Amino acid sequence: MQLPIIVIIALMLFILTPCANAGDPGKSVYTQRCMICHGPGGDGKGRVTALPRVAKFGKLFTILPRDFTTGSFKFRTTPTGCLPTDNDLLITIERGIQKAYMPSNAGLTQKELKAVVEYIKTFSSAWQDKPNETVCKPIIVKIPSYVGTHESIAKGEDLWKRKKCWECHGQDGRGDGPKADDLRDNGDNPILAYDFTSCVSKATFSPEKAYLAYTTGLNGTGMPSYQDTLNEHERWHLVSYTMKLMGKLRSIGK
Ligand code: HEC
Ligand code: HEC
Q1: Range of the domain at 209
Q2: Tens-digit pLDDT profile for residues 107-121
Q3: Closest protein CA for atom 18 of ligand 1
Q4: Residue 172 Cα to ligand 1 middle (Å)
């Protein structure tokens, strides 16, 4: 009996797919949960090409899945220009990025999460080039007790003006500053500055995470690091002011 070709192909796929990934648990997780957006080659060209678009300033802004081949990551505990730690990646993958429509992977075991972290690192040679481990040491974060006080908020507001956060984020933090309609990421794609009144951020929802963003910068977005231009206390004052803009003071008991 001869089987129609379509049945043979279907059978081959059925037999081959599990075997192809059997040796690499990271690849297997990636194929099942990540490839659809981040693409087979990790370059962000998966089958999902139409993530929701936001219309602003008469343009459409698309949220694009990350291209891992560039080795550029936003949410890190390491200084600007550095690669993230394995744990930074693991936390992002486990939590997901709600605002960017990347689902949570809290259902995976730590072993599976670690395996997929290793797997996505194979997409860029940046990991083989070995970053300077002394320079790229994780930043330790301990929130001072003055964060969220009136005095700290006032100092933060002054820094917001002096450091020109408003040029991108707008005077009132609505993401509509004078430079906001012409920002591009490192892939030359139009990018929106964060609107502090939008209720949901990608990673800066706690004072600690906001402090990290101001210290490390968001690589690839044009949002700089302030580690060299603001001292530690000044960065915490900015946290106070921006927690106020986000309406999050109550979450830190203020
Ligand atoms: C529905 C689409 C989608 C799926 C599925 C998805 N992601 Fe993402 N992911 C995104 C988008 C969109 C971004 C870009 C977010 C941004 O830069 O604002 C992203 C960003 C990332 C980042 C970069 C974080 C940083 O610090 O810059 C990592 C790492 C990542 N994804 C890993 C994964 C892994 C691993 C999986 C599977 C377990 C996965 N993603 C599944 C859409 C997806
Ligand atoms: C050159 C323009 C520019 C300047 C100046 C700038 N930012 Fe940003 N910022 C951005 C862009 C673009 C994003 C969006 C990144 C993204 O969505 O991936 C962003 C994102 C953020 C986020 C949200 C990140 C998240 O979790 O979603 C915070 C908080 C923030 N900026 C605070 C500040 C503060 C405070 C200053 C001043 C000290 C500042 N920014 C200066 C462009 C800028």
Answers
A1: 150-252
A2: 999 999 999 999 999
A3: 100
A4: 29
